[in-house]
Design brief:
Helices cover 10% and strands 46% of the residues. By secondary structure, it is mainly beta.
């Protein structure tokens, strides 16, 4: 079983301010394929217009429409067919072009006349550690019951005309707003004096890597900040709308359907703009929750099916160092430092280059391995760090932050 990182939340495409045009497959049946699960995101190989170039797309149930990086569109010779605005996690809004591909191929599934938002995805690659060419969103996924087997790293697109669910998983109704799948779920608060349920509508988002992202209004109305013993402030994630500002804490229990998850890590947003600022949205359910199940998002049947896997009872981990890393030009750099953490106490700063960890090349380790390394509290290590051409070695002791 692979250990998964607690990468700061990357919500690749949470909201597009344009109408989505559905793209159905050119023939029916079920389509099963391997996925790469990296940094809490699901990557699938994609081909456009029969090109021999294999593109790297993420499967994102939190995307109102599929997206393609404009540089990739240009490389493939796709012409813009319209203009729109795009909004994602973070407060920035972008003017974009709309592109249309004659064919889109995902494994054995082929689609015709697929529309893409020309969203600026390339800047996110420094956070993901690899190429991010596009996003598979609602206009592609909505024709299927989408089965995601995180444990075995498989994705199956079921044609509802030929498929019937015969398992014993828990079924939860899906409610669609703006082409986003919402589920009714909530946080439970229980003690000798009180038993409260704080429930609301959460977006089901495979394009978000944290366990939970909680809207500020929902958190304030329900007193959720007080439920976390510790709150860490700073950038909690990164999306096409820029950095997501907020707080990170730990909630007592999250319940979805018949399933209760103990002490999940929650990212509380404080952005007043962007996709995560919608007042009628309680929050987002991301990969750190979803990966504990075999997940079936049955779009035509408007239901979510959850079968717990062996990781269901695992504790929710969180970074024990306090720095967000990125990969830029082959180097590992510090993107942000959270206050009151070991990283801050070592006087690390944005732009510092991490050269080695206990003598191991940081660049060769890669983002995911580095983030897994810093999940472990009470670990002593020597970091070689370069700033303005000068290198220094610092001793670090990680500790439990949440």
């Amino acid at each position: 079983m692979k250990t998964r990182t607690n990468r700061a939340g990357i919500v690749a495409l949470a909201c597009l301010l344009i109408a989505s045009i559905h793209a159905g497959p050119t023939y029916g049946g079920d389509f099963e394929m391997s996925m790469e699960w990296r940094g809490g995101l699901i990557y699938l190989p994609v081909s456009i217009n029969g090109s021999e170039e294999t593109l790297s797309f993420i499967l994102d149930t939190g995307a109102m429409m599929s997206a393609l990086d404009p540089a990739v569109a240009a490389r493939l010779g796709l012409a813009a067919v319209g203009q729109a605005q795009v909004m994602g996690a973070g407060s920035e809004t972008h003017e974009i072009s709309i592109f249309q591909a004659a064919t889109l191929t995902i494994g054995d599934a082929s689609f015709e006349n697929v529309m893409f938002a020309g969203a600026p995805l390339a800047p996110l690659s420094i956070h993901t550690g690899g190429a991010l060419d596009g996003v598979l969103g609602y206009n592609v996924l909505s024709a299927f019951a989408v089965e995601i087997d995180y444990e075995n790293e498989r994705v199956t697109l079921h044609d509802p005309a030929d498929w019937t669910y015969e398992g014993d998983g828990d079924e939860v109704p899906l409610h669609f707003q703006h082409n986003l799948p919402f589920v009714y779920a909530g946080i439970e608060e229980e003690s000798d004096e009180v038993h409260k349920k704080h429930e609301g509508m959460f977006v089901l988002d495979t394009g978000a890597s944290p366990a939970l992202i909680v809207n500020e209004g929902f958190a304030e109305r329900n007193g959720l900040y007080a439920l976390s013993e510790t709150l860490i402030e700073g950038p909690t994630g990164f999306g096409i709308g820029g950095a997501v500002q907020g707080k990170v804490g730990r909630l007592p229990e999250f319940r979805i359907g018949a399933h209760a998850l103990e002490a999940p890590v929650a990212h509380f947003t404080i952005d007043t703009k962007g996709a995560l600022a919608y007042p009628d949205m309680a929050g987002v359910i991301g990969a750190k929750v979803l990966s504990r199940f075999l997940v079936i998002v049955d779009y035509p049947g408007a239901r979510l099916i959850l079968e717990p896997n062996e990781t269901m009872g695992d504790p929710f981990d969180y970074d024990a160092f306090g720095a967000h890393f990125v990969k830029r030009d082959g180097n590992i750099e510090i993107y942000a430092v959270l206050p009151g953490t070991p990283a801050a106490e070592c006087a690390l700063a944005e732009g510092d280059r991490l050269v080695t960890i206990d003598g191991r090349s940081a660049a060769e380790m890669g983002l995911e391995a580095i983030e897994e390394w810093f999940l472990v509290p009470d670990r002593t290590c020597a970091l070689e760090v370069e700033r303005d051409g000068e290198t220094r070695t610092i001793q670090v002791l990680t500790r439990k932050l949440l």
